[in-house]
Amino acid sequence: MSDHGTQSRRQLLARTGALGVSIAFAGNLTELFAGTAAAQTMGHTGYGPLVPDPNGLLDLPEGFRYRVLSREGDQLRSGEGKVPSNHDGMTALPGRRGRVHLVRNHENRNTAKLPVPTVEGLTYDPQGKGGCTALTLDVHGEVLAERVAIAGTAVNCAGGPTPWGTWLTCEETEDRAGTNGYTKDHGFIFEVDPADPHRSGAVPLTAMGRFQHEAVAVDPRTGIVYETEDAFQKPFGLFYRFLPTHPHGGAGSLRAGGRLQAMRVPGVPDLSSIQEPGTTFDRVDWVDVPDPLAAETPIRHQDFGRKGITHAQKLEGCYWGGRSVYFVSSYARSAEGSAADHYGQIWRYDPTHRRLTLVIVFGPDTDIQLPGESPDNICLAPSGGLMVCEDGSGAQHVYGVTRHGEVYAMARNAQALTSAATAAGGTPEAPEWGEFAGVTFSPDGRTMYVNCYTPGTTFAVQGPWRR
């Protein structure tokens, strides 16, 4: 952060339950939640300190409770096999008669101990161990069904919901056929229909690009799809938009193809160089990607002309809010080639005015100099606040950010704390890495769903949410 990110413009969360955590937060969130009617009722603070969970799973503020919906290694209710490991991105979509469909990614590589079971008609590459599972919940939040929604994909990290009620799951890999045992090229987006997975099948949306996908967001007015690329080594990833041939065609329409473009901010080759929240660029260019399939050269290595293209390290979360798309750079490290250091940026792109604004900067001038405070998956809460999944080592949290800029702890993975305490007691086992992922809310806003990556666990959290 630049030296003019002063204390008067930051709010620090000094205590989160039993642990002290300090996070530098900079910026004004008024514009972040513009267009969200419920934002006007968001309070100035969080929900109080976290209360240690006697069951050692999930610490929450007083008055909140959780339920475990699904856990890796359990049997899928469909009988197709066991619940796969590595729970990652997720969405909650409305179903018929008040039901809710949860679609959950499994970021499995070819070494995963619990792969997504292969199912006829839903498997892309039999050697791929990633994919999605779908849970159907009744009006009381009870699990009615749990089944494979797509299989045979690889490293399914995040994705995004569509306006027509499907989920776009993203492969965060560029492995080709013949690499790591795969029989097909990987690095694609796939559409998943939670109500009827066989209707969407396992068809790669090749025109949307082959690269290390992270997340997507769809503009409901135009049908344009925005995509982030999670690359932590130079050249870093790009921020893309996909202009579909049939922008409002509904489920399956993205198979018709379209144009893939990458964002260029004139004079800014690396977004990490921008350190001042509120910095705005009134002109953003979109440049056609020379080879979306990356047949010879990965897209971020391709030649975009003498004016170049804009890169950013670790582009991750992406969502649509109001009339803008928001996307996250999880961190930037100059030691790894970035132009500057930070522990998280959130950018806002207004497509109507082609305007890009840096809305939030986390760190690095925090009391705890750790990249573990980096934001990853994000979503808007019904109250108008923002929920952010932390991605790093040690104790892991879901943090809330109010529209007034206060950062507070919403949940803590007690499993990570238990493992760390055990390791500190002299056992040879290292602390377990248990980041949160896939935070999302039910359509009625009464339940927050979130995954623990490992051990793969899906939680439903209810309590006195501010409406």
Automatic annotation (TrEMBL):
Transmembrane segments: none annotated. SUPFAM superfamilies: YWTD domain. InterPro entries: PhoX, TAT_signal. This is Secreted protein. It comes from the Bacteria. The lineage of its organism: Bacteria, Bacillati, Actinomycetota, Actinomycetes, Kitasatosporales. Pfam families: PhoX.
